[in-house]
């Protein structure tokens, strides 16, 4: 933090996720969006003008070396994450990274250890856990309101790769061993471990590649695909609670359909991301409920994430802002997250189960 109390942030990348991250930073009091980086000069010029940013870099190393920047937001393609995150940590910068922290569990663990040694805040953007409805669901599960959890279920479904012509090198790197699992499945895993208050301890998975060859319409070439279009998982939590989920990029009609369900002895709780301000509660002796979350209807601990009355819908950009705001709050209070969030879902399943082609 600077002497004036302002925390200055720099964003590396200007793609899909970088823009809403920039918008979120600008919404948080006491945080300045001070710099942006993009290797394309024209794109960099466009973003600087649109956001009124004075500092712009075409080389991320120059941003990392800027002594006036305290926080780096890493919004680059996955294969660049490790080197940028490592350089930022070594430079003493706090790092807020898009997933994954690194490609591979061992490398990610070494980055986590390095951040701990250097005393910098380090976060990965799993924003869904900061939804007010998810936090309310967690509060009820933790209090035992629904009884002992019997099992957990859910899905994350999209149709962005439902056709064999749905190909870009960025979306489907030819070197990537996992895609549906590593891109969207990990969000389900993070959200459900937050709700359950415990990690996933064991994973069994089957990965499917529905289109072994995809057509790159930009070049006309056929590209061999080595990553999953769909993955089914069975999981076991630390306390023995079982769970199951499906993740797919080939689910026609599903746009960003993340669903988390905890089925307990007395009640069942379901959160659907596409109706993100609602918590669905299943009952046996009376009618089922739909809780429209509002600042007057949730647990006190949830209030930081539900800042509007019920009916004033808070959506995806608000959840992202709350995630980033929580990260900056940890910097201000120097209460950095000191625990490692286990991610066996992608690391174990991706390496343990063979893909099936086609299916």
TrEMBL record:
Residues 134-266 form the GFO/IDH/MocA-like oxidoreductase domain. Keywords: Oxidoreductase. Pfam families: GFO_IDH_MocA, GFO_IDH_MocA_C3. InterPro entries: Gfo/Idh/MocA-like_OxRdtase_N, Gfo/Idh/MocA_oxidrdct_glycsds, GFO_IDH_MocA-like_dom, NAD(P)-bd_dom_sf. SUPFAM superfamilies: Glyceraldehyde-3-phosphate dehydrogenase-like, C-terminal domain (SSF55347), NAD(P)-binding Rossmann-fold domains (SSF51735). It comes from Hungatella hathewayi WAL-18680. This is Gfo/Idh/MocA-like oxidoreductase N-terminal domain-containing protein. Residues 7-126 form the Gfo/Idh/MocA-like oxidoreductase N-terminal domain. One of its GO terms (molecular function) is oxidoreductase activity.
């Amino acid at each position: 933090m600077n002497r004036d109390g302002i925390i200055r942030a720099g964003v590396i990348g200007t793609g899909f996720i970088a823009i809403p991250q920039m918008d979120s930073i600008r919404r948080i009091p006491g945080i300045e969006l001070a710099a942006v980086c993009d290797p394309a000069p024209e794109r960099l010029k466009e973003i600087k003008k649109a956001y009124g940013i004075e500092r712009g870099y075409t080389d991320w190393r120059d941003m990392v070396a800027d002594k006036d920047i305290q926080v780096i937001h890493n919004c680059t393609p996955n294969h660049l994450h490790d080197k940028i995150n490592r350089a930022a940590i070594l430079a003493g910068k706090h790092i807020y990274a898009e997933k994954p922290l690194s490609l591979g569990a061992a490398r990610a663990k070494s980055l986590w250890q390095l951040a701990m040694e250097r005393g910098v805040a380090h976060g990965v953007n799993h924003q869904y856990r900061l939804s007010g409805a998810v936090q309310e669901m967690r509060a009820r599960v933790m209090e035992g309101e629904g009884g002992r959890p019997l099992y957990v279920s859910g899905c994350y479904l999209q149709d962005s790769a439902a056709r064999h012509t749905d190909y870009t090198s960025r979306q489907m790197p030819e070197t990537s061993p996992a895609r549906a699992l590593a891109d969207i499945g990990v969000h389900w895993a993070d959200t459900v471990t937050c709700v359950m208050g415990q990690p996933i301890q064991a994973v069994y998975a089957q990965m499917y590649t529905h289109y072994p060859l995809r057509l790159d319409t930009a070049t006309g070439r056929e590209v061999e695909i080595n990553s999953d279009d769909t993955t089914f998982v069975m999981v076991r939590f630390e306390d023995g609670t079982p769970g199951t989920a499906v993740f797919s990029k080939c689910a026609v009609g599903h746009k960003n359909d993340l669903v988390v369900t905890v089925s307990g002895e007395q009640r069942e709780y379901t959160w659907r991301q596409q109706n993100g301000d609602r918590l669905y509660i299943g009952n046996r002796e009376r009618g089922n409920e739909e809780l429209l979350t509002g600042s007057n209807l949730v647990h006190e601990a949830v209030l930081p994430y539900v800042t509007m009355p019920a009916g004033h819908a808070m959506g995806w950009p608000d959840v992202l802002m709350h995630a980033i705001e929580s990260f900056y709050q940890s910097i201000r209070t120097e209460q950095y997250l000191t625990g490692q969030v286990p991610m066996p879902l992608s690391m174990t399943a991706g390496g343990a189960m063979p893909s099936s082609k086609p299916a």
